[in-house]
């Protein structure tokens, strides 16, 4: 039996039991056998969820880049580490080998050092999905600087807030970025942001689109000439296990983004181990995660997890719709991708386009399909399974959060039998539980409650940057001695978990607690529906009633809308029960989403409640234009 690589269900159960009965010895063995340490730990784990404080592998010394790069040089030096697929398919892919990555990271690290960046300093990375993004992340880690990657689609306000919150002294950016047929003036956004960031001394600018930008004397420097001058050797800074590796802000679906702090050793061990198993990664597989490195998914499963396993990871600059909606499948076909990890929002958008664009390509290389970010509704699950996976590639519906650092609940492909809409079983070492509103744990199966985690895992975020109290209040104050996820879930008759939505979004109709996901699922089964979101609004008799926002596949749908409303409610009634029927149904052109593609129910709720005085900052949305349209047509 191998604890590092789970190959069948019986083995999963055995290893799982071992990992929760004696977590310390379990993780110690994984850490000992599969990573490179400059010094081993004095203590595997100390924790106290009351403070809260968690420390893994205390006393150990390491550098994560030695684990992600250096140690592969002897055996995988000429293997591709990063396969860069540019926005424009005609530009051609770039293969960066482990040896080249080693040299480029070292050069970049030396540039940062010359600019005065030291261990513990914060560096803001506002770079599009080009190799410099991954390389700058690793260069920071090489010298012990704390990276704070900000998604390069965010506005100047979102950027300046994040720069100031974590006190960054240096910003790495690019002259601009490509996004499908458009270019974005990134440097202009940075200039605007920095008008309100006094702490930033230096801006390093990578050249991507060759646009004519202005450089501020004494502050802005082109990156390439500095890299050309720099040595390609840079000794790795030796870090403590608990030294911060990075700060990353949550998506902000539920409020002001939180700057989660992840530390070095536990994060490395957990992301590497989950990557290996959740994707069943084998040497020479080609792995592609479509997320942006600006999100936790990109940190853990484009950069650190894959590289720690010596994998080849695809870095895609473009968008799923350019040059046409077949781009994802074109890339899978061209590079023979084996593992493909994306988000439900992308699947729904592609499903809306029909199957012709999928069928044009040879997808037979695919072995594992993944989904993350939101509940994947049943309709989208089947579309993905039938058309992309051809019923032979298991879908891993992986539930986790920025705060958790790595995948927490997921099927292990070819090990755990999948079930649509279920994230299924806890990953090795993860101890989930369900709590009721009164703080009582719901034991046994077929229960529905609030999802908590009982015991620390190696990659749990250690704090919120500069605000430990908020960390404590948000995650550790709702239930005693538990990490509270903020999500609701149910456990079915075999112990599989299904995430039912955010606890804050639960709607109480005539005394019944209704989660959003199962109802949206039923709605999305209607053949005319592309996407939906439900929220509650005050109702005289029921307390709250359900308001549904529904986008149709064919926006110009000429069918009688009242009939469609009836059909949708009939579907809900059949699938879930009459209690979940929608009081009001508004057909929309689109649904407001965060930049990472999550539906912003918070805004929809306010509109349904007819309280639009304080919608918050909608400019950071992916599609702010749809908000006005929804407000204009509210029922
Ligand atoms: P904020 O915390 O600022 O409101 P956020 O929660 O959207 O933002 P993330 O950490 O990116 O920020 O997202 C984690 C959340 O995404 C989870 O708590 C859960 O609600 C949802 N999620 C992620 N994966 C899944 C999944 N497979 N199934 C259901 N929900 C998921
Ligand atoms: Mg969250």
Automatic annotation (TrEMBL):
One of its GO terms (biological process) is acetyl-CoA biosynthetic process from acetate. Transmembrane segments: none annotated. Keywords: Acetylation, ATP-binding, Ligase, Nucleotide-binding. The keyword Acetylation applies. Residues 70-461 form the AMP-dependent synthetase/ligase domain. Residues 519-598 form the AMP-binding enzyme C-terminal domain. Its EC number is 6.2.1.1. One of its GO terms (molecular function) is ATP binding. It holds the Pfam family AMP-binding_C. InterPro entries: Ac_CoA_lig, ACAS_N, AMP-bd_C, AMP-bd_C_sf, AMP-binding_CS, AMP-dep_synth/lig_dom, ANL_N_sf. Residues 12-68 form the Acetyl-coenzyme A synthetase N-terminal domain. Belongs to the ATP-dependent AMP-binding enzyme family. PANTHER family: ACETYL-COENZYME A SYNTHETASE, ACETYL-COENZYME A SYNTHETASE 1. This is Acetate--CoA ligase. It comes from Patiriisocius marinistellae. The gene is acsA.
């Amino acid at each position: 039996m191998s604890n590092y690589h789970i190959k069948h269900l019986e083995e999963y159960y055995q290893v799982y039991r071992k990992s929760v009965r004696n977590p310390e010895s379990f993780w110690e063995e994984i850490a000992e056998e599969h990573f490179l340490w400059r010094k081993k730990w004095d203590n595997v784990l100390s924790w106290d969820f009351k403070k809260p404080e968690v420390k893994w592998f205390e006393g150990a010394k390491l550098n994560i880049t030695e684990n992600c790069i250096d140690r592969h040089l002897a055996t995988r030096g000429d293997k591709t580490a990063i396969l860069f697929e540019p926005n424009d398919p005609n530009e051609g892919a770039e293969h960066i080998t482990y040896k080249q990555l080693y040299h480029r990271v070292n050069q970049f690290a030396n540039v940062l050092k010359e600019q005065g960046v030291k261990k513990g300093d914060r560096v803001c990375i506002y770079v599009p999905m080009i190799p410099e993004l991954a390389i700058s992340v690793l260069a920071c880690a090489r010298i012990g600087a704390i990276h704070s990657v900000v998604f390069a689609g965010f506005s100047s306000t979102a950027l300046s807030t994040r720069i100031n919150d974590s006190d960054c002294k240096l910003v790495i950016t690019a002259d601009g970025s490509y996004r499908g047929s458009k270019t974005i003036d990134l440097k202009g956004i940075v200039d605007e942001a920095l008008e309100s960031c006094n702490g930033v001394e230096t801006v390093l600018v990578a050249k991507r689109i060759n646009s004519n930008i202005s450089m501020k004397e004494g502050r802005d420097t082109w990156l390439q000439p500095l890299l050309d001058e720099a040595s390609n050797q840079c000794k790795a800074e030796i870090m403590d296990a608990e030294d911060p590796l990075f700060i990353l802000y949550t998506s902000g679906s539920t409020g002001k983004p939180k700057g989660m702090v992840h530390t070095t050793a536990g994060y490395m061990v957990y992301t590497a181990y989950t990557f290996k198993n959740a994707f069943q990664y084998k040497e020479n597989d080609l792995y592609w995660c479509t997320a942006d490195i600006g999100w936790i998914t990109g940190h853990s499963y484009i950069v650190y997890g894959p590289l720690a396993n010596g994998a080849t990871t695809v870095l895609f600059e473009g968008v799923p719709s350019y040059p046409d909606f077949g781009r994802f499948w074109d890339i899978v076909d061209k590079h023979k991708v084996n593992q493909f990890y994306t988000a439900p929002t992308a699947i729904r958008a592609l499903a809306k386009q029909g199957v012709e664009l999928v069928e044009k390509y040879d997808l037979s290389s695919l072995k594992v399909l993944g989904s993350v970010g939101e509940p994947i509704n049943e309709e989208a699950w089947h579309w993905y399974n039938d058309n992309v996976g051809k019923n032979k590639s298991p879908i891993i519906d992986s539930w986790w959060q920025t705060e958790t650092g790595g995948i927490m609940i997921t099927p292990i492909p070819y090990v755990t039998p999948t079930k649509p809409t279920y994230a299924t079983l806890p990953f090795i070492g993860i101890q989930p539980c369900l709590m009721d509103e009164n703080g009582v744990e719901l034991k046994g199966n077929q229960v529905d409650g609030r999802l908590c985690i009982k015991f620390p895992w190696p990659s749990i975020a250690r704090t919120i940057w500069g605000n430990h109290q908020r960390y404590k209040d948000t995650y550790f104050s709702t239930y005693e001695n538990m990490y509270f996820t903020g999500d609701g879930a149910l456990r079915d008759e075999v112990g599989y978990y299904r995430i039912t939505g955010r606890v804050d979004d639960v709607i109480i109709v005539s005394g019944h607690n209704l989660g959003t996901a199962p109802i949206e699922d039923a709605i999305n089964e209607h053949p005319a529906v592309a996407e939906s979101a439900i929220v509650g609004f005050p109702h005289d008799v029921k307390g709250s009633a359900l308001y549904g926002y529904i986008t149709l596949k064919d926006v110009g749908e000429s069918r009688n809308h009242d009939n469609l409303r009836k059909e949708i409610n009939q579907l809900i009634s059949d699938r879930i029960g009459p209690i979940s029927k929608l009081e009001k149904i508004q057909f929309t052109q689109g649904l407001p989403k965060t930049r990472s593609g999550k539906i912003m129910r918070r805004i929809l709720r306010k509109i349904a409640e007819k309280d639009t005085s304080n919608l918050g900052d909608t400019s950071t949305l992916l599609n702010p234009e749809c908000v006005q349209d929804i407000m204009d047509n509210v029922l």
